[in-house]
C-alpha cells in the first residue's frame, strides 16, 4: 500500500510568486524568496519554524495571535512574522530571550482559558496549541483557572459530521477565514468583543441551522479540538494515510484517507491535489460511510426469475451461471443479443475491461456507458468543432478569467470545490454571466452577484447561443485575427452569414427564449470584450433534444472571440460523475475504441485485433436506449451492468423496467441492491472506491489514482470480476494488477501513451494527451497554437424547438437538477448522514404558479407528463420562473424519471431530461406508479432479505 505522511508541512502563509526576488538574513542564514513572501515563510525556507497559531498556509495571514513575533535589525518592536513581508537586506532574529518571554506570555494567556484535558482530548497528538506550548517552553500558568473563562461553554453537536466545542476555541479566526476565503460561504463570524468574543455560525445559530454547507474547511483549518470530526472523536487519531481520489463528482478531488489499521477515520483533502488544492465538499469529505453500510450486498446471488428468492452462491458459480446464460442467449437469439453497460463511477481500468469483454468475448459492440445520458453531446460537439471531446483548461485556469459564463450548470451544488475557486475569482472582480432557467446560487450569493442572468425558457439554449453570436458578429466584436489564423474560413463565412440573419437576433428570439433582448446584447458584449472569457457548462446544456447543437454553439462562441488556447478562457464541460471523462476516453461507446477511434477504422481495428488476439466487429453496436427497444422487440435478451442504475437514472422508467423485464439474463454488479438489481437474475457484489486500485479522469482530463485502503469486502475487486466473467465466456484476460490494464491502454491509445502508474505515483496526476509531444505531466491547456483537428470548424446551429410542447393539458415545463448533499441516484449519499440535509426530492415552483394552483410549500402535488405520473411535496420559491417547475432525482420513490420522456438529442440520444411538459395539481395520495413501486420494492427487498444459501459458500469471497 502506498502511504503518505499523515501531517502536511504548514508553511504558515501562502506561496507567493513574483519575478522579483529578495535576499535577507534570518538567524544568520541568507535566504532568497519571491517578493511578497512573509518572514514566516522565508524562515521556513531557511530551515526555521517560527511558533504560530493564527497562521496557516492555506489562508491569508491575519496577525492576531502574536506568537510569531520576531526582531528585525533597525526596527522598533516585535513585528508578527506572518504579516511582515520579507525585504531585501533585512536581518531577522527569530529566537532571543525577549522573544521567548513574549511568546510564553502569549501562550500562558491562551492556556489559562483552556481546559487542561490534553490526555483525553480528541486532538491529542494533532493539536497545534499543544505543539506550541511545547515549542515555546511553557512550564507554568501563573494566572490559574479560577477567573473568568469559557470552560463551561456548551458544545454544538448539531452537525452530523463535526462538533464545535467553544470551550477549546482560541479565537484565532482560522475557521472564519477558511469559510470566507477557501469555501466562499461566509457562514462564520466572531461574535462578541474582547474576552467575550467567540466563533459563531450564522446569527449565533447552531451549525445545522446556519448557512454552513458542511464543506469541512473550517474543521481542517482549526488548530485545536474546537472543530473536530466526529469520526476522529469516536475512533481516535489515525496512524497512517493513503492518497486516493473522491468517488463522487467530476472535480476529482484528491484526498488522504486517514486510516487506523484498515478503518477509515477521516478523509482529508490533499493540499497538493491539483484539482482541489486542499479543499473539499460535504460529499467527498464526509459522506464515505456508505462503504461500510449494513445494506452492502456482499454475496454473489442468482435466481431464475425476478419473482424467485435470491440464492447465495460462490463467485465461481455466479459467474459461470451468468456466462452460461449469456452463451445460451447468444445461441438462441444471435451474437448481438447481449451487451454491457458501465458507469462513470467505475475506474478507467474497469470500463476499459467491460468494453473489451463486450468486443472480444461477446463478439459485438453493444457497449455503452451512463455518459450516454449526460455528456455524450459534449463528445460529439467538441469533437466536431475542435477535434477532441474534452474540456480545454485546468480548474486553476479560472484564476485568469475576467469574464465567466456559466450555462446550464449549478457548480455550487454539483461541482462545489470548483465553485469555491470560481467564487474566489468573482470576489476578485471577474464578471459573471449566468444562463439558466433557475436563479442558481451564483446569481445572487454571498459576495457574488451575476452581472447578467439570462433566465431562459428550458429548451431554448440554441436560440440564446445564436442570439449571442448574432450580437458578436453584427456589432463587430469578432476576433478576426484569431479566426483567420486558427479557423477554417469557409466554414466561418457560412456560420457568420447564418448568425447575422435577423431571425437570429436577440429581438427576434426573445419570444422563444423569454430573455429581454437588451440583456442578451449586454451579455454578448461583455463576453466578447471583457478580457479572458471562460465558458463552463453542464447538463443543462447537453440533456436536450438539441444538446449537441448547443455544445457546438458554445464552441463557436469561443472561437469567434478568440477565447480558446489561452489561460482564463476555453470551453469547459463540468462532468457530473467522477469518471465521465474517463468512461468516454476508455471506448465505452458502441461506435468507438478507446481514444475516440471509430470501430469502422480498419487500422485501429487491426491494432486492437492484434493486441487482443480476436477478430473484432466494425459495425457500431447498440446504445442504451436501442438496447431497451431491442429488448422489447425480443432481440436483446441479456445485459451485464456494472455500477450503473439504469432503472433510476434513465428516462421513462416504465419503458426501462419493461425492457429489463423482457430480458432473460440481467447481471448487476453493484454495492447495493439498487433499482436495476431488483430486475436482475445475477447479482455480483461490487467493491467501493476504498477497496480497489485504479484511476479516475476528471473534467480537466486529469488522471489520478484510486488506491486500495482496505480489502474488497466481498473478496474481489470489480476488475477481477470482469476478468473472471471474460474467462468464463472463453476469453482470457490475464492481468495481475490494474497497473497492467493501464499499461495496455497506454500501448493502444496515442493520447495515453505516456501514462503509467509509476508516473502518476511520482507526479500526483497527469493530464491527457500525455505522450511524446507533451511535457511529462501531459497537457494542461488544449488547442494552444492549433486545434486538435487542425483548423477550428464553425458549424451552423439552427434552433429547432423541442417536440416537447407546452399545451393546455401539460401547461408547465419540468426541468431537473441536483442538490449539494445528494449525488446522482443517491445510492451512496442516501446511506450517509447527508440525508439530514436533504431527505426527499421536492417540486420547486414559482409563487405565481403556486397561487394559481392553490399550492403551498409542503403540500403534496401530483405531476403528470405524457410518460407518467408521480407525487412529490412542493417547495414554493422565487428561484423558479413562472411556468417552470424543478425537481431533483436522488430518491427512487420520487419517480422523477417516471415523468421524463424518451425524447433525446438528435446526434447522441442523450435524453431530454431538462424539458418535460407537465401538469401539476394538489393531491392527497401517491401516484399509481408509486403504489405499484412500493409493492414491487417491498417484495424485492423481501426476496433479498430471505435469500437462501445454495451451494457451499456462504461467506463472502469464498
Ligand atoms: S474554532 Fe478553531 S479555528 Fe475557529 S477561532 Fe476557534 S480555535 Fe480558531
Ligand atoms: S463547514 Fe464549510 S461552510 Fe460550514 S462553517 Fe465550516 S467552512 Fe463554512
Ligand atoms: S467537489 Fe466533487 S470531487 Fe470534490 S469532494 Fe466534492 S464531490 Fe468529491
Ligand atoms: S501566527 Fe502570526 S500573529 Fe498569529
Structure description:
It contains 30 helices and 39 strands. The protein is α/β, with parallel strands linked by helices. The strands form ten sheets. It has an eight-stranded mixed β-sheet with strand order 17-16-27-28-29-14-15-39, covered by helices on one side. The protein has a six-stranded mixed β-sheet with strand order 34-36-35-38-33-37. Strand 20 and strand 21 form a beta hairpin. Helix 9 runs parallel beside helix 25, helix 9 crosses helix 26 and helix 13 packs antiparallel against helix 16. The longest helix is centred in the middle third of the chain and has 19 residues. The radius of gyration is 29 Å and the shape is globular. The two termini are 24 Å apart. The structure holds iron/sulfur cluster (3 copies) and FE2/S2 (inorganic) cluster. FE2/S2 (inorganic) cluster binds next to loops.
The low-pLDDT segments are 951-958
Strand order of the largest sheet: 17-16-27-28-29-14-15-39
Structural class: alpha/beta
How far apart are the first and last residues' alpha carbons, in Å?
24 Å
What general form does the structure show?
A: globular
Q: Topology, pairings included?
A:
Elements: E1 3-4, E2 21-26, E3 29-34, H1 39-45, E4 71-72, E5 91-93, H2 97-111, H3 128-135, E6 155-156, E7 162-165, H4 174-183, E8 188-191, E9 198-201, H5 217-221, E10 227-229, H6 230-235, E11 240-245, E12 254-260, E13 263-269, H7 282-286, E14 301-302, E15 311-312, H8 315-333, E16 338-342, H9 348-361, E17 367-369, H10 376-386, E18 403-407, H11 411-414, H12 416-427, E19 431-435, E20 444-445, E21 448-449, E22 452-454, H13 461-474, H14 480-486, H15 489-500, H16 506-513, H17 517-529, E23 533-537, H18 539-542, H19 547-560, E24 571-573, H20 580-585, E25 592-593, E26 597-598, H21 602-612, H22 624-633, E27 638-642, H23 646-649, H24 653-662, E28 665-670, E29 682-685, E30 694-697, E31 702-706, H25 718-728, H26 738-748, H27 757-763, E32 766-767, E33 812-816, E34 842-845, H28 847-853, E35 860-864, E36 869-876, E37 884-887, H29 896-899, E38 916-922, H30 928-945, E39 948-949
Helix pairs in contact: 8-25, 9-25, 9-26, 10-19, 13-16, 13-17, 13-19, 16-17, 22-24
The structure holds iron/sulfur cluster (3 copies) and FE2/S2 (inorganic) cluster (FES).
Amino acid at each position: 500500500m502506498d502511504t503518505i505522511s499523515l501531517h502536511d508541512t504548514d508553511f504558515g502563509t501562502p506561496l507567493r510568486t513574483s519575478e522579483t526576488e529578495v535576499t535577507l538574513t534570518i538567524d544568520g542564514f541568507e535566504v532568497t524568496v519571491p517578493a511578497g513572501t512573509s518572514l514566516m515563510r522565508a524562515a521556513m525556507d531557511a530551515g526555521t519554524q517560527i511558533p504560530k497559531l493564527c497562521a496557516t498556509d492555506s489562508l491569508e495571514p491575519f496577525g492576531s495571535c502574536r506568537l510569531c513575533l520576531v526582531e528585525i535589525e533597525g526596527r522598533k518592536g516585535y513585528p508578527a512574522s506572518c504579516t511582515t513581508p520579507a525585504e531585501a537586506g533585512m536581518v531577522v532574529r527569530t529566537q532571543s530571550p525577549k522573544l521567548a518571554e513574549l511568546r510564553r506570555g502569549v501562550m500562558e494567556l491562551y492556556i489559562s482559558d483552556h481546559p487542561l484535558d490534553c490526555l483525553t482530548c480528541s486532538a491529542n497528538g494533532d493539536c497545534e496549541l499543544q505543539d506550541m506550548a511545547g515549542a515555546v517552553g511553557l512550564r507554568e500558568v501563573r494566572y490559574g483557572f479560577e477567573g473568568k473563562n469559557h470552560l463551561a461553554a456548551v458544545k454544538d453537536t448539531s452537525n452530523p459530521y463535526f462538533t464545535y466545542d467553544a470551550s477549546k476555541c482560541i479565537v484565532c479566526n482560522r475557521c472564519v477565514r477558511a469559510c470566507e476565503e477557501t469555501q466562499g460561504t461566509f457562514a462564520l463570524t466572531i461574535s462578541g468583543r474582547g474576552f467575550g468574543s467567540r466563533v459563531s455560525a450564522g446569527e449565533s445559530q447552531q451549525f445545522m441551522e446556519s448557512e454552513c454547507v458542511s464543506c469541512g474547511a473550517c474543521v481542517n483549518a482549526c488548530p485545536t479540538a474546537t472543530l473536530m470530526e466526529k469520526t476522529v472523536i469516536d475512533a481516535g487519531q489515525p496512524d497512517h494515510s493513503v492518497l486516493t481520489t473522491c468517488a463522487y463528482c467530476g472535480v476529482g478531488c484528491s484526498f488522504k484517507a486517514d486510516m487506523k489499521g484498515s478503518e477509515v477515520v477521516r478523509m482529508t483533502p490533499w493540499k497538493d491535489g491539483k484539482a482541489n488544492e486542499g479543499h473539499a465538499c460535504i460529499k467527498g469529505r464526509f459522506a464515505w460511510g456508505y462503504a461500510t453500510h449494513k445494506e452492502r450486498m456482499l454475496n454473489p446471488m442468482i435466481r431464475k426469475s425476478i419473482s424467485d428468492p435470491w440464492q447465495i452462491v460462490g463467485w465461481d458459480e455466479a459467474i459461470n451461471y451468468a456466462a452460461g446464460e449469456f452463451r445460451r442467449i447468444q445461441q438462441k437469439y444471435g451474437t448481438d443479443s447481449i451487451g454491457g453497460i458501465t458507469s462513470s463511477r467505475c475506474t478507467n481500468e474497469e470500463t476499459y475491461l467491460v468494453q473489451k469483454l463486450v468486443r472480444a468475448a461477446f463478439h459485438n459492440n453493444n457497449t455503452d456507458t451512463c455518459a450516454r445520458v449526460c455528456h455524450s453531446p459534449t463528445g460529439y460537439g467538441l469533437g466536431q468543432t475542435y477535434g477532441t471531446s474534452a474540456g480545454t483548461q485546468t480548474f486553476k485556469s479560472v484564476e485568469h478569467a475576467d469574464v465567466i459564463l456559466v450555462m446550464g450548470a449549478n457548480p455550487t451544488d454539483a461541482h462545489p470545490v470548483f465553485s469555491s475557486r470560481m467564487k474566489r475569482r468573482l470576489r476578485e472582480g471577474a464578471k459573471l454571466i449566468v444562463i439558466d432557467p433557475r436563479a442558481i446560487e451564483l446569481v445572487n450569493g454571498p459576495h457574488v452577484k451575476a452581472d447578467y442572468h439570462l433566465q431562459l425558457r428550458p429548451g431554448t439554449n440554441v436560440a440564446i447561443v445564436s442570439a449571442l453570436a448574432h450580437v458578436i458578429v453584427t456589432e463587430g466584436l469578432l476576433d478576426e485575427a484569431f479566426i483567420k489564423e486558427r479557423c477554417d474560413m469557409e466554414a466561418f463565412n457560412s456560420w457568420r452569414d447564418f448568425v447575422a440573419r435577423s431571425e437570429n437576433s436577440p429581438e427576434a428570439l426573445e419570444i422563444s427564449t423569454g430573455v429581454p433582448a437588451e440583456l442578451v446584447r449586454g451579455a454578448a458584449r461583455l463576453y466578447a470584450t471583457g478580457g479572458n472569457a471562460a465558458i463552463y457548462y453542464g447538463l443543462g446544456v447537453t440533456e436536450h433534444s438539441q444538446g449537441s447543437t448547443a455544445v457546438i454553439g458554445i464552441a463557436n462562441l469561443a472561437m469567434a472571440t478568440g477565447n480558446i488556447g489561452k489561460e482564463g478562457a476555453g470551453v469547459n464541460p463540468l462532468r457530473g460523475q467522477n469518471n465521465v471523462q474517463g468512461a468516454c476516453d476508455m471506448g465505452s461507446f458502441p461506435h468507438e475504441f478507446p481514444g475516440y477511434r471509430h470501430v469502422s477504422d480498419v487500422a485501429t481495428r487491426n491494432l486492437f485485433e492484434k493486441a487482443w488476439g480476436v477478430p473484432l466487429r466494425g459495425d457500431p453496436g447498440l446504445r442504451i436506449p436501442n438496447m431497451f427497444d431491442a429488448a422489447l422487440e425480443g432481440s436483446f435478451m441479456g445485459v451485464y451492468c456494472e455500477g450503473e442504475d439504469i432503472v433510476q437514472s434513465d428516462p421513462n422508467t416504465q419503458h426501462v423496467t419493461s425492457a429489463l423485464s423482457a430480458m432473460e439474463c440481467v447481471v448487476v454488479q453493484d454495492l447495493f441492491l439498487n433499482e436495476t438489481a431488483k430486475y436482475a437474475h445475477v447479482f455480483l457484489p461490487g467493491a467501493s472506491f476504498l477497496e480497489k486500485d485504479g484511476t479516475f479522469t476528471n473534467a480537466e482530463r486529469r488522471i489520478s489514482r484510486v488506491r486500495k485502503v482496505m480489502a474488497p469486502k466481498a473478496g474481489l475487486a470489480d476488475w477481477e470480476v470482469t476478468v473472471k466473467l471474460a474467462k468464463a465466456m472463453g476469453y482470457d484476460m490475464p492481468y495481475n494488477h490494474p497497473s497492467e490494464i493501464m499499461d495496455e491502454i497506454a500501448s493502444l491509445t496515442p493520447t495515453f501513451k505516456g501514462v503509467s502508474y509509476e508516473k502518476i505515483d511520482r507526479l500526483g496526476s497527469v493530464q491527457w494527451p500525455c505522450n511524446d509531444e507533451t511535457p511529462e505531466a501531459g497537457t494542461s491547456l488544449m488547442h494552444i497554437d492549433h486545434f486538435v483537428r487542425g483548423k477550428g470548424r464553425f458549424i451552423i446551429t439552427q434552433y429547432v424547438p423541442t417536440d416537447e410542447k407546452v399545451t393546455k393539458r401539460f401547461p408547465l415545463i419540468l426541468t431537473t437538477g441536483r442538490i449539494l448533499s445528494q449525488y446522482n441516484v443517491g445510492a451512496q449519499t442516501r446511506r450517509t448522514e447527508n440525508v439530514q440535509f436533504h431527505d426527499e426530492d421536492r417540486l420547486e415552483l414559482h409563487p405565481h404558479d403556486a397561487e394559481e394552483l392553490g399550492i403551498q410549500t409542503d403540500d403534496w402535488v401530483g405531476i403528470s407528463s405524457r410518460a407518467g405520473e408521480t407525487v412529490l411535496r412542493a417547495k414554493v420559491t422565487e428561484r423558479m420562473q413562472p411556468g417552470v417547475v424543478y425537481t431533483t432525482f436522488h430518491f427512487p420513490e420520487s419517480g422523477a424519471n417516471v415523468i421524463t420522456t424518451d425524447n433525446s438529442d438528435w446526434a447522441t440520444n442523450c435524453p431530454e431530461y431538462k424539458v418535460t411538459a407537465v401538469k401539476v395539481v394538489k393531491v392527497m395520495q401517491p401516484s399509481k406508479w408509486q403504489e405499484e413501486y412500493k409493492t414491487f420494492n417491498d417484495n424485492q427487498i423481501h426476496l433479498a432479505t430471505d435469500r437462501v444459501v445454495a451451494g457451499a459458500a456462504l461467506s463472502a469471497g469464498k
